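Recall from the previous lesson that a structure prediction takes nothing but the amino acid sequence as input. Here we apply that procedure to La ribonucleoprotein domain family, member 7 from Mustela putorius furo. The sequence below is the only information supplied.
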Amino acid sequence: ELLPKNVNHSWIERVFGKCGNVVYISIPHYKSTGDPKGFAFVEFETKEQAAKAIEFLNNPPEEAPRKPGIFPKTVKNKPIPGLSVS
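The prediction returns the following tokens.
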């Protein structure tokens, strides 16, 4: 949820790829305008990788400038604050 308006598959793969191997991405669009609806479906190779992504997005590091469950705002080609998964 709350993805940037200019979201695309490569952006989602770059962000969520830090949690595991992304095998499928679906970005719903409005039929009338073609604009993304602001959310996406991301499928990982394993349940463990999906769980890692869920855990990270629901429990961001303390220094992350956002509330749990809300995606950070980004600027093109700039790192996402607090998104360092080991």
